[in-house]
Task: inverse folding
């Protein structure tokens, strides 16, 4: 597990033993799994548990804003 980003009380993680498609896990009060690329090219929410709507909106915006950096980190970790 590698923490790749922190902001606004949220922590973005990539698990080193995880699987395709490229995605991140965002932890705050709850957690969410967000695919880094959907068919439209934008990040997409896979699931969220226990995360307040406002935190989820911030998490999605954070992943959209950092999409290229997060993809580069995914590729660095997973090849």
Result:
């Amino acid at each position: 597990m590698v923490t790749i980003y922190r902001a606004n009380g949220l922590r973005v993680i990539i698990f080193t033993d995880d699987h395709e498609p490229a995605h991140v896990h965002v932890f705050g009060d709850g957690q969410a799994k967000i695919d880094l690329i959907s068919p439209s090219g934008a990040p997409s929410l896979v699931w969220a548990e226990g995360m307040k709507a406002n935190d989820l909106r911030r998490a999605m915006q954070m992943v959209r804003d950092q999409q290229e950096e997060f993809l580069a980190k995914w590729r660095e970790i997973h090849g």
